[in-house]
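Shipment paperwork, digital attachment
Item: protein structure file
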Amino acid sequence: MQEKRKYIRYAVEGSVILKPEDGASGSIKADLADISFIGAGFFAKEKIETGTNVSFEFTLKLWDRPVTGKGKIKYVHEVKRLDSKFFRMGIEFIDIHKETIRSIINHIQAYICAAAKKRAA
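Attachment content:
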């Protein structure tokens, strides 16, 4: 089966704080699952409805500073993870500094290549 995605998703370790912009109060903390040039996936204990605009702040293990921006929730799936109910959600970036995302992805790719070379040695 051929991949339909335009951009590769990279598994990452980190967290994200999401703030719905629909007037709902509070924020949701989630674990990052993956990131691509146009969006990210994460696991949260609370659900945000598809189509909701959110502001976010990512903290990545491989990146030394937070990444902020705005996005739209594109999908929500209920999943079991570690014997608990979670929501796997995906966000499409709407407003984010594209050079920052490009730099993060380049950094992830360099890390993957370095790890592969180390294993091969």
